[in-house]
Amino acid sequence: MTTLNISQTSNIDEACSICLSPLTQRDLDVFTTTCRHKFHFQCLTKHIRAKNNQCPLCGTRLNSLVNILNCSSTITTTTTNKTPLAIRNVPIQEVASIQTIPSTNRKNTWTKLTKSLSNVFRLARPTSRISNSSGTSNASSISRPPINSNNRSFRPNFSNQNSSAEDLIDEKAVRALSARIQAARQQYQAGDHESPLITLTTTLEFGGQESTKESNIYGMVTLKAPSIFSNIANEKEIDELHVPIDLVCVVDQSISMLKVKMPLLKETLNYIVDQMGPLDRLSIISFNTQAFDRSNGLKLMTLENKQAIRNAITNEISAVGGTLIGSGLTIAIEQLRNRRTTNPLGAILLLTDGQDNLPHDYTSLIEFLPEDVTCHSFGYGPDHNASLLSQLAEQGHEGTFTYIDQVDAIGSSFGTVLGGLFTCIAKQLCVKLEFDQDYKITHTHTTYKYKSKDLPSEQLTFNMTDLNADENRNLVFQLSVPIIKSLDENNANNNIIGHASLQYIDTYSNQIIHTPSVPFILSRPNQVDPQSSLLQINHTLDVQRNRAETSQILKRAVEAHDYTHAHEIIKNQIEKIRSSLSAQDPLCQQLIYDLEQQYSNQREFKTIMTNMYRQHGQERATYSTNKTTSAAHYMTSGQERLKMKFVK
C-alpha cells in the first residue's frame, strides 16, 4: 500500500526527483510509495493528474493514491456513514491498512491528505464533510490546476574532474589514419575528379544596375563541398577512412519507452556500435529522472569494448521511471568537457519520446558544450517537446533536429545523421564578405550566425560549425546599391564591388585552409535597357531565396499562437513561390507540395514544420515523415549509405 509519510525526512541531501528541490521544505509534505521512493506529495499528485500512474523512478503502479485522487473531486459523506467517500472507494485490502491507524491519527492523516490536495489544486477547503438535512453537500470539487508556462532554469553541477574511465586516444594512430586519408584524396584528385578543397562562388540577383539610381538587390555566396573518393574506394576502405569521432549517445529509458520502442532503440544503439572504427570513442548514457553511464566513460571501439557495450545495452537499459533530459545531458557534456585527449570530431546524439516531468530551460546547460562538439536531437512520437529539442540542437552548435513519427524509422534517422558525421570534411568555417564603400549589406536570410557591428554594413562574417562531403551552403543576403559617378564603358561593365573569402579547418589534416577571394561583379552603366539581360533575375539565386524565405516563414508559423494565422502565413508563402521566376524548379515544386499538406492537429503541424524549417535553414538532410519530401534534396551519398546499412 502507498502511505503518507507523516514525519518529515531527516536527510537534507535527499531531493524530490520530480521537481529536483530538497525533500525537506516548510509546508511541503513528503510521500513515500510502496516501492520506498519519496516525493513531494504535491509534485506526485500533479504527476498522477497528468495521467502518469506509475512511480516516476521505477514504474510501480500507484493504485492506492490514484484511486484517492480520482475520488477526491467529489469528497462527500452521509449522516449514517462518516467515512470519507475517497477512502470507501479504495480496494478492501487497502482500507484495512488505513483502518489500523488509531482514530485520532486517521483523522489527522485524512486532514493532511485533503489539505495537501487543496494546496496542490488551489482549492477552498470544504466547510463541512457532512451533508445537511437536504442531502446536498458543501464539499468542493477538485479541478486541474492552471499550467505554469515558466520553465525552470536547469543549473548543472559539474565536477570539473578528468574522467579516469576515459580511454585515451592513440595520437600516433590518428596521424597515420590522416595520412592514409590524404593519400586517398590525392589519388582521387589525380583521377580527374574535382578539387578536394571547398569551392566558393558569388552571385548577385542582377548583372547590372544603373549608376544613377539607388537600389536594393539580393546577393549570395555558395560553398560547395567535394565528394570523398567514393568512386575509387570499396566499402571496407570507406568504413575505415573516416575522421575519428568522440560520440556520446544520450537516450531516454523512461517508462514510455516500453514495448516495441525499447527493443528498436537497443537495435539502433548496437547498429551505431557496429559502425564505429577502432579509433572512434563511444559513450552510452541512458536517463529517466536520473542518468546512467552504461559504457563507463568514452571507450575506444576495440572488439572487446564493443562487446562490453553491447552487453550493457542488452542487460542494463530498461524502460522505467519519469523523464529529466537534463540528467543525461549533464553527464554527456561533463564527459566531453573533461576529456584528457580529444578526437578531431565530437557529437552528442540525444533521443527522447517525451517531456520532462516538469519543464526546464536548458540554455545555461548547453552553454557548457565544448565548441568542437555538436548536439543532434531526435524527438520520437507525438509527445516530445519539439520546440525544446530544436532549441537544444540550434544552441548545440547548429546540430540537427529530427522528428521520428514511426518506431521503425529510429535506425534510419540515426543512420542519416551518422552518415553526415562520418563524412565531415571541414569545421569552424568563416565566410567573410567585404564590399566597397557605400555598398552595404542590409539584411541576411540564413540561420547561420554572423559577425557585424550593425546592419547595414560593408563587412560581414558568417560562421558555420561544419560542412560534410557533397553538401552545399547558400548564404543569401540583401545589398544596398548606391548612386555612383559615371564610369567609362569598360569599367562600367566589369565593376568589382566586393569580395568573398573562406577560411576553415580541414578535418583530415587539421590544417587551416584559406581559399582565394572571389569578386562580386556588378555592371553600373549610366542607363540600362529594361529588356537588357543585365536586369534578368538570376535563376539559381531565386531558387535559394525561395528556400531561405520558406525556412524563415515556417519558423514564424511554428511560433505563431494562432493556428489560423499560421496557415495564412504559409498560404501567402505558397503564392509567393508560385509567382516567382523559379516556380517550376524541382526544389520549389517540392516546397509547394510540402507547404500544402494538411495536419490533424496543431501539435503535429508544429512538430513537422519545426523539422522542415531546420532542414531548409541548414540545407542538411534528416529523416522526414511521409508528409514532406523536399529535404531529400540535401541527402548526400554518405548519409544515404549509412541509412541503408541499418537493417531492421
Which secondary structure elements does this structure contain, and how are they paired or packed?
Blueprint: E1 3-5, E2 30-32, E3 38-40, H1 41-49, H2 63-71, H3 85-88, H4 92-99, H5 103-121, E4 152-153, H6 171-190, E5 199-204, E6 215-224, H7 235-240, E7 245-252, H8 261-275, E8 281-287, E9 291-293, E10 299-300, H9 303-316, H10 325-337, E11 345-352, E12 360-361, H11 363-366, E13 373-380, H12 386-395, E14 401-404, H13 410-422, E15 424-435, E16 440-445, E17 449-451, E18 459-468, E19 472-481, H14 489-493, E20 496-506, E21 512-514, E22 518-521, H15 539-559, H16 563-578, H17 586-595, H18 602-618, H19 637-645
Parallel strand pairs: 4-12, 7-8, 7-11, 11-13, 13-14
Antiparallel strand pairs: 1-2, 2-3, 5-6, 6-19, 8-9, 8-10, 15-18, 15-20, 16-19, 17-18, 20-21, 20-22
Helix pairs in contact: 1-5, 8-9, 8-13, 13-19, 15-16, 15-18, 16-17
Keywords: Metal-binding, Zinc, Zinc-finger
InterPro entries: CLCR, CPSF6/7_RSLD_N, VWF_A, vWFA_dom_sf, Znf_C3HC4_RING-type, Znf_RING, Znf_RING/FYVE/PHD
Pfam families: RSLD_CPSF6, VWA, zf-C3HC4
